[in-house]
Write a structure and sequence with these properties.
Blueprint: E1 2-7, H1 16-30, E2 34-40, E3 58-63, E4 66-71, H2 81-94, E5 107-112, H3 118-128, E6 132-136, H4 142-146, H5 153-168, E7 172-175, H6 178-188, E8 218-225, H7 232-241, E9 248-255, H8 259-269, E10 274-277, H9 283-291, E11 295-299, H10 304-307, H11 312-319, E12 324-327, H12 331-339, E13 342-345, H13 350-362, H14 364-381, H15 384-397
Parallel strand pairs: 1-2, 1-5, 2-4, 5-6, 6-7, 8-9, 8-11, 9-10, 11-12, 12-13
Antiparallel strand pairs: 3-4
Helix pairs in contact: 1-15, 7-8, 7-13, 11-14
Length: 401
C-alpha cells in the first residue's frame, strides 16, 4: 500500500500533532507500506526555519527512512491566533507544491492541522482519484468558539458547514479519543461506523526505572506546552499548600504563551518548592528529566474541547512507568481510571490534588504499581507498531469494494 500523509507538523517539530503524524508514518512503514509525507519546513514553535531551507519552495529528505517532501512556510512563531491561522493557510496552499512529486498513492491521510489539512487533501483526492482518511487531533472550529475567537453566527454557520463536509467526504475519520468521536457523531450526524478511534501512542515504552537509591525527595513533574489547555493555577495552589513538606517539590517545564504568567504566579505566591523552566530540551535531555520524576501532573483545562481529547503526553507519561495525577472530569480522567495508571482529581479541586500527591508520597508501593500499570498498557497497546497496525487496517478498508 502507498500512503500519502499531509502533515504541517512533523519531526523535528515538537508537540502532539508532530508525534501523532510520525507514529502513524513510522508504524505504516514498519507494516511494509510505502509512505510519503508532505510536511512544512521545520518551524514549530518559534518559527525559526533552518538556514539551509532558505530560497527553497520544496525540498526532499528522509526521516528514519520515510520520504518527506518539505514545503515552504512563513517564519512566524506560534504565539498568537493570527499567526497560527496564517501558518495553517500558508501550508494548505504550499502543500500543493508537492503534488507533481508524490507519485502514485492508494490513500491520503489528512493528518494536521485539523480542518486546514483537509483542503489540500481534497485537491489530491480529486487529482489522484484516491480516498481520503481525515484525522482529528483537535475539535476545530469548536475550539475557536469556546475561546471566544469566533462569535459571529454567520461565520459559525460557514465553519460548521466546512467541518461537516470535511467529515462527510472522507471514507474514514480517525479521531484520537472517544470524546471526539461522540462530538462528531452528535453534532454533525456522521455515521459512527466510519469513525475509528486511534490514539496518539508512543515510539516505545521506556525500560523500568528503579528509584531505590533515590533520597526521600518526591518530585512531581509537568512537562509540555505551557498553554491555555492546562490548569496550572490549581497545581500552584496545591504547591503552596504543600510548602511545609520540604521533601515534596514540583517541576513545571516547557514552552508556551503562559510562560510569563506562570513566572509571575510562582513569584507572587513565593513558591520555593516550585521550579519553572521555560526551555526546549532534546529528546535525550527530556528522557533524563522524565526518568527522575516520582509522579507526573496532567492538569487539564475545564474547556470541553480539551476535556474531550487525549493529549499525547498522557501516553509519554505512562511509558516511563510513573503514576499520573490527573486533574480532569473528562476523557483523560476516564482513560487514567480505565488503565489504573494514576489518581484522578476533579477540576479545580486543590484539596483533592494535595491529598493525591500526599497519598503517592506516603505510599511508594502504590505509586510503583500505578506507574507499572500504565507502562504495561502502552507497551501492549500504544507503540508505533500497534498504532501502525490499526491505521493500516483502516486504510486497507478504504480499498475494498
Amino acid at each position: 500500500m502507498k500512503a500519502l500523509i499531509i502533515a504541517q507538523y512533523f519531526p523535528p517539530d515538537i508537540g502532539g500533532a508532530s508525534a501523532r503524524a510520525f507514529n502513524v508514518a513510522k508504524g505504516l512503514y514498519l507494516k511494509g507500506c510505502d509512505v510519503t509525507v508532505v510536511a512544512a519546513f521545520p518551524h514549530y514553535p518559534y518559527g525559526k526555519i533552518p538556514s539551509d531551507y532558505k530560497h527553497n519552495a520544496i525540498r526532499l529528505e528522509r526521516v528514519e527512512n520515510i520520504k518527506v517532501l518539505r514545503v515552504w512556510i512563513p517564519p512566524l512563531p506560534h504565539n498568537s491566533v493570527v499567526n497560527r491561522v496564517l501558518l495553517h493557510l500558508s501550508f494548505a496552499f504550499s502543500a500543493l507544491f508537492a503534488l507533481p512529486f508524490t507519485g502514485e498513492v492508494d490513500v491520503i491521510w489528512a493528518a494536521n492541522p485539523n480542518l486546514f489539512s483537509f483542503l489540500p487533501a481534497l485537491i489530491y483526492k480529486l487529482t489522484k482519484r484516491k480516498p481520503i482518511v481525515r484525522n482529528v487531533d483537535d475539535l476545530w472550529p469548536e475550539v475557536f468558539y469556546e475561546m471566544g475567537i469566533v462569535q459571529s453566527k454567520p461565520v459559525k454557520m460557514a465553519l460548521d458547514f466546512l467541518a461537516r463536509l470535511s467529515y462527510m467526504i472522507p471514507e474514514a475519520v480517525t479521531p484520537i479519543s472517544p470524546g471526539y468521536k461522540r462530538r462528531i457523531v452528535e453534532k454533525y450526524g456522521i455515521n459512527s461506523q466510519k469513525i475509528r478511534v486511534v490514539e496518539v501512542g508512543i515510539a516505545s515504552a521506556q525500560p523500568p526505572v528503579s528509584n531505590s537509591n533515590k533520597n526521600t525527595q518526591f518530585l512531581a513533574v509537568y512537562s509540555g506546552v505551557l498553554g491555555i489547555g492546562y490548569d496550572f493555577n490549581t497545581v500552584l495552589k496545591a504547591a503552596h499548600s504543600l510548602s511545609e513538606h520540604k521533601d515534596i517539590v514540583f517541576l513545571i517545564r516547557g514552552t508556551g504563551e503562559r510562560e510569563f504568567e506562570l513566572e509571575q504566579l510562582v513569584g507572587s505566591l513565593g513558591l520555593e518548592n516550585v521550579t519553572l523552566k521555560a526551555d526546549f530540551l532534546s529528546r535525550k535531555e527530556l528522557a533524563v528529566l522524565l526518568r527522575s520524576a516520582d509522579a507526573f501532573l496532567l492538569p487539564m483545562s475545564p474547556a470541553s474541547f480539551v476535556e474531550e481529547g487525549l493529549p499525547a503526553k498522557i501516553f509519554e507519561y505512562q511509558s516511563y512507568g510513573k503514576p499520573i495525577v490527573c486533574i480532569s472530569d473528562g476523557e483523560p480522567a476516564r482513560y487514567v481510571q480505565a488503565t489504573h495508571s494514576g489518581l484522578v482529581v476533579r477540576q479545580k479541586d486543590t484539596v483533592g490534588l494535595v491529598r493525591a500527591i500526599l497519598k503517592l508520597y506516603r505510599n511508594r508501593k502504590l505509586a510503583s504499581e500505578l506507574g507499572e500499570n500504565g507502562r504495561r498498557h502502552v507497551s501492549s497497546n500504544m507503540t508505533t507498531e500497534k498504532i501502525g497496525e490499526r491505521m493500516y487496517e483502516i486504510f486497507a478498508s478504504t480499498q475494498r469494494e
